Predict the structure of Urea active transporter 1.
Amino acid sequence: MVSSNAEPTPVPDASITPPLSQAVGYVVVVVIGFVIAIIMILITRLMKKTVGEDNTKTEMFMTANRSVRTGLTASAVISSWLWSTAMLGSSLVGYNFGAAGPLWFAAGCSPMIVFFSLLGIACKMRIPEAHTLLEIVRIRYGQSGHIVWIVLCLINNIIAVANMLLGASAAITALTGMHIIAATFLLPVGVILYTSVGGIKATFLTDYFHTFVILIIACYFTVKAFTIPEISSPGHLYDLVIRAGHEHPVSGNHHGSYMTMTSKGAILFGIIHILANFGLVIMDTGFFVKAFSAAPQAVVPGYIVGGIAYFAIPWALGTLMSFVALGLESNPRFPTYPRRMSATETSNGLVLPYAAIAVAGKGGAAGILLITFMAVTSTLSAQVISVSSIISFDIYRRYFNRRANDRDVIRWSHVGVVFFGLFSACFSTALHYGKVDLGWTLYMLGVLTCPGIFPTVFTILWRKQSKLAAIISPLLGMATGIAVWLGSAHAFYGTVSVASTGQTLPCVYGTVASALSPALYSIVLTLLRPDNFHWADFRKEKLAFDSAEDVRATHSHIIEEDASSYAANKAKFQHWGKIAAIWSAATFLGHWVLWPLPMYASHYIFSKGFFSAWIIVAIIWLWITLFIAGFFPIIDGRAQLLQIWNALRSGQPVADPKPEPEAQVDSAGGAGSEIDLRFQQKS
């Protein structure tokens, strides 16, 4: 480690001197990482001592006893999608395309989160004991389908983590001079510690803490940017960006302006982004784990609130900080002055760090360093717990030890956490030395993440999809997408290389083919020989762990009820399903169709007053997101916090602790009784 007095050294692949020393980088990545890990480990032990949340039990470790409330669910949803690339990438496309870039980035993030509320509530209704998506696939399609989905989900997790680590490591290196490989390997260390000990509840708690810190810093920049005399107001920022547009017009934008939604490059990125993100969400078993962990009445509101609140982060932060970079590039405050940012710096996601340095100097650099670290470790935690669930439940428990008890599964969950943390660092290192950067992965990842979208949705929502269609369609879809992607790169640029395959058009064609062709394959194959799956068959197999003694029991004593109670709960869940479907359609139409497309077609260039309103609304939305992610979980979970406080004061654990029931809506739309957490029909 470099001493605290060491001067920062230039980074070989960067063109500016890092504003912070290497010592600061190691303190944040190593020391703060360990401190957070230790705090979270102590909190999980406190929860066990006071309210009986025992992480040595599989149901608690993997699903938090399916009792997480709406506030913490919403915060976890925001955090799961708050990748370091959400902030670095939204600023990147804002710098490249202007106002259209961050809006398309945000519009490509919220619809699939809200749509996931529909999938989540359907899973809660049809297979309440499940821990992972892959258990659902195995029950419906057998071993062959199970293996195909294991491969698809692991590919999704691997490419997602590589995208995070490449962007975060490059930013940390540019800010501190820390060696990029050291950053890549050290970032997962703290995550491995607290995830392996605390399980999914530790992930929820760290999600909450990290998201709160990130949003506080993001909101700080929305204030700080307008306090420097070079910017001072939205109107002055508008003038600076208009001047930048005259000096450096954007190819493909109307009149070359940054102040327009009519941007060919931005809308092509928007198509890639929304399809790729549907794949990243639906094929990420971590989102299913969090849905299974939520209380039944918390799934739909948690995902809807979290998805809509999240929209503001890439929109507000990406717009503001990319425009700060554009406006101040010709000012001595900007770190690259007197030159513009190079294509390499832009593609490495350094627009946000450089803008922060211009606005707040070393304090800005420290803020970006901290939120980059927080974002990548929080989302990496979700990915690690996702992969560990695949290794423990879907590989070990299914194919190596079907009589596995709590201790066995927890041990292999720990193995999965450590293995994937190390593997992700090694894989990201290989990509780095292969000259792959954030920009390349941001554009091409949809080719690999999208083939399972429609087969997975059909698995949960369409009883007719046949086993043959489910197994063949994603494999054919991935082959189609890769062939179109590589073929387009060769057709347009005459070669297949990292540079050509990272261009916009090959990635658009490849992603669209990869996402949509499996729907066609599945529907055609199913129509030839349709299935008629009975949803009740999902509940025939016992999946939940009651205790080490009754793992082999035929029926669950935790999730068990009679037929009349099941019918009543089914009606309530169907009501939540209708709400989820309505909000899913409304979010997609609002964020991706009714708002941006008319503005694209109008060829409108923002006036000063319109831009001021645009940026002010984005900032207000961001501050509301801060409240939802930071304070709503505290308000919503005040009953359990009070239980913990009373237990600490009395020195006695809470007797038979149960989560405080939330008010929920019955099928008539009024206040109803709590949805029964037990959800297994007796045979």
About this structure: Confidence is low (pLDDT under 50) at residues 1-14, 58-65, 547-566, 656-683. Residues 22-461+534-664 form a domain with the Sodium/glucose cotransporter fold (CATH 1.20.1730). Strands lie at 664-665, 671-672.
